[in-house]
Amino acid sequence: MKIVYDPAHVSHYPTKEIDKGRFIENPEKPERINQIKDALIMKGFDNFVPPSKFPINYIYLVHDEEYVSWLKAKCESLSEDEEYITEVFGYDKCFDTGTPIKRNTFEVAKRAVDAALTAARLIDSNNVVYALIRPPGHHATRGYCGGYCYFNNAAICAMYFLKRGAERVAILDLDFHHGNGTQEIFYDTDMVYYISIHGDPKYFYPWITGRESEVGEGPGEGFNLNLPLPPKADWSEYSAALAYAVNEIRDYYPDVLIVSLGFDTHKDDPVGDFLLTDQDYSKMAKQLSKLKIPMLVIQEGGYNPQANAASAVNFFSALE
Ligand code: OKP
Ligand code: ZN
């Protein structure tokens, strides 16, 4: 299995965020994916591929030019270690206060897109490629950053596959949080089927999307599926939702499956609230392998570096 990884991610290190009116430590840290990389190497995975550069136009397949220019200009206005916490919704093209911007945020987020696209380009008719990247992407909408996400890596890759001639792309979002950005971007199309299993937004971020009633609209009606689970969901509840999702993907028969993979579903994750164990990630991968559809796995969340590492090793060992 090829793994696309860019060590430059370490220069993006948000330190804080505002949560319920208070500053808290920001958990979206370099160690999250450094530990995954180290553990995969220890396990014998050695097919690491560096990212190529892609033109900025790929980002415009998904994001508004106004948002992209705002982010770029904001970064350029900041000094070396300055951390800008967005707070004026609308003026700031951000929908929360948990997504700090630093001088090199644009550059590093763009490099994550490049790594994801490099992985997408390596997809052929029957393989798996893993984009081991950060910052994550699934909360980023067409016009706003949010939830530690700046550019929607998975959505940009879906557009890449459609441009390259794919007729149908499925995105399975297994991060603990609902991918409001990915949902929004493909809400009105039947060419991308977005399916997400996540903590019920009645209790968890992003609060305002992720309900079962959100089924898509226009030609996209029936091509958006939310499977919210209650707090403390364990493998028995999770695997039932996953089995349902896998059946839906099989029936849709996409040319490629993009998996937005977050390890914040692990019982030891400090942000998520499910109870999956290390072993459950092997079972998760086995369920997905049954599909026999080319699979681009894109890293999203997961905030306990050790749990991330154990989960990733089990997931990718079971896939191969
Ligand atoms: C990003 B991803 C909780 C603060 C909430 C936002 C969480 C974003 C998760 N104390 N901050 O989907 O993993
Ligand atoms: Zn998450």
In words, what does this structure look like?
Keywords: Hydrolase, Metal-binding, Zinc. Residues 27-318 form the Histone deacetylase domain. This is Histone deacetylase superfamily. With 320 residues, the protein is an alpha/beta fold. The chain has one domain: Histone deacetylase domain (Arginase, Chain A), CATH 3.40.800. It contains 9 helices and 10 strands. The chain has helices at 31-42, 57-60, 65-76, 105-121, 153-163, 180-185, 235-252, 280-289, 305-319, and strands spanning 2-5, 16-19, 22-25, 48-49, 128-132, 169-173, 192-199, 224-229, 256-261, 295-299. Strands 4-1-5-10-9-6-7-8 form an 8-stranded parallel β-sheet, sandwiched between helices. Strands 2-3 form a two-stranded antiparallel sheet. The radius of gyration is 18 Å and the shape is globular. The mean pLDDT is 97. Zinc ion is lined by residues 175-177, 262, 264, 300-301. {5-[(3-aminopropyl)amino]pentyl}boronic acid binds at residues 19, 98, 136, 139, 147-148, 175, 177, 205, 262, 264, 271, 300-301.
Average pLDDT: 97
Task: List the helices and strands in order.
Answer: EEEHEHHHEHEHEEHEHEH
- The overall strand count is 10
- CATH class bucket: Alpha Beta
* Fold-level CATH name: Arginase, Chain A
- The fourth-level CATH homologous superfamily is Histone deacetylase domain
Structural class: alpha/beta
- Helix content range of the residues, please? 25-40%
* Cα end-to-end separation: 7 Å
Query: Stretches where pLDDT falls below 50 for ≥5 residues?
Result: none
Shape: globular
How many distinct domains? 1
β-strand amount:
15-25%
CATH second-level architecture: 3-Layer(aba) Sandwich
